[in-house]
Design goal:
Blueprint: H1 2-32, H2 66-80, H3 83-91, H4 97-114, E1 120-121, H5 125-135, H6 138-148, E2 153-157, H7 165-178, H8 185-188, H9 199-207, H10 210-217, H11 220-225, H12 227-250, H13 278-291, H14 296-301, H15 306-313, E3 319-324, E4 366-369
Parallel strand pairs: 3-4
Antiparallel strand pairs: 1-3, 1-4, 2-3
Helix pairs in contact: 2-6, 4-5, 7-13, 12-13
Length: 372
């Protein structure tokens, strides 16, 4: 009996040692692999599949930025294909080509938003990582920006990521007006409509003139050189003013004093709980931001599609912003399959804009973009 006990003890010890040695070997082999160590995507993350990317960056049909989007895509195709893809996939070996393609689409959308908005926080670490690699091709990057807009979009780091729920909400609203989302947009940006629009922003939009709002919240320089940008900014200002006015009416605050039923507060999103219609969700976002900012999360929970709730379940962030020309604006949020950024150069490369430290979805990556 004693011999059996000793034998069993020896077997347990041997198995324990084998397990430890196997674990160490796995760690060493992982450390030898090229590129940053990437965490596996959470089980609820959708696998990226090859598909047809939307034309003109998937602009909404009523947004008059088609010519600028076409020029942006043409310049990118000329200056960064295929070298940027090769550089990114070499650095992040677990990233598939399909994942790269969908994330580059979102980077292009972000850059186009920078041509419309004043100071655009970067709310995706993965998109920011690709932007960093793009910046390594210094001359190509400057030529790229100048060819579709006439100025450089500077990558402006802002230190560590910090919570920016108000800025994130503003980003979400503008994004939802400009673009038709792909099936991966919410995943890449870590979920939309998580936060209510800031009360100060709502008051400014309601009370200030379109001209003043164009200077304080949008890229005024774009309006001076691009009629399409001017039309787009005017459209966005008018639309948000209208949505705020409708929300006030639904809350019983109609300008002429006539009572309005509060049942209207759920009408904007009631029929969209199973769709990704971001335009209607954005309307609900404005309404609940106006009439029930404290209960915003619960209100949006009733109208958000399940897919969007899953996207919100895992957040991440980045801490940079992008600015046109020499203007530097504030910004900061990010996260997905865990690609981190570090230096590196290629050919006649060099960084034209700093780095980002990344951390959560109400935070920015510490970097971002935008106009003056």
């Amino acid at each position: 009996m004693e011999l059996i006990f000793i034998a069993s003890l020896i077997i347990v010890i041997v198995l324990f040692l084998i397990t430890r040695l196997t674990g160490k070997n796995k760690s060493r082999s992982a450390g030898r692999r090229g590129g940053p160590v990437r965490k596996s995507a959470p089980p609820n993350r959708k696998e990226y599949r090859t598909g047809v990317l939307p034309a003109h960056l998937g602009l909404a049909s009523d947004i008059p930025l088609t010519s600028i989007a076409r020029e942006l895509e043409s310049a990118f195709q000329t200056l960064f294909v295929p070298q940027l893809k090769r550089r990114v996939l070499d650095k992040y070996p677990r990233m598939t080509e399909a994942e790269y393609d969908w994330k580059v689409l979102e980077l292009k959308r972000y850059l186009l938003m920078s041509a419309v908005m004043r100071g655009v926080p970067m709310f995706s670490r993965e998109v920011d990582d690709i932007w960093h690699e793009m910046l390594m091709f210094t001359r190509e990057y400057e030529t790229f920006c100048n060819s579709w807009y006439g100025r450089t979009v500077h990558h402006a780091p802002h230190g560590e990521a910090a919570p920016m729920p108000g800025e994130r909400a503003w980003f979400d609203w503008v994004y939802s007006q400009l673009f038709v989302p792909t099936e991966y947009s919410g995943q890449i940006w870590r979920g939309f409509f998580r936060y209510p629009l800031d009360a100060q922003l709502l008051e400014e939009v309601e009370r200030q003139s379109p001209d003043k709002l164009a200077s304080s919240r949008f890229n005024r320089a774009s309006m001076d050189v691009s009629p399409d940008a001017e039309k787009t900014i005017g459209l966005l200002i008018g639309r948000l003013k209208e949505q705020i006015g409708n929300a006030k009416m639904a809350d019983g605050n109609e300008p002429d004093g006539k009572p309005v039923t509060r049942n209207a507060q759920h009408s904007s999103g009631a029929n969209h709980s199973n769709t990704s219609d971001y335009t209607m969700l954005a309307t609900s976002m404005v309404m609940f931001s106006v009439i029930d900012p404290v209960g915003y999360t619960e209100q949006m929970e009733d109208v958000l599609p399940e897919e969007e709730k899953k996207n919100q379940a895992s957040c991440g962030s980045s801490s940079c912003s992008g600015t046109f020309g020499d203007d530097r604006s504030d910004s900061r949020d990010s996260g997905d399959s865990g690609s981190g950024s570090d230096g590196g150069s290629s050919g006649d490369s060099g960084s034209s804009g700093g780095s980002s430290s990344c951390s959560s979805s109400s935070c920015s990556s510490g970097c971002g973009g935008g106009g003056d």
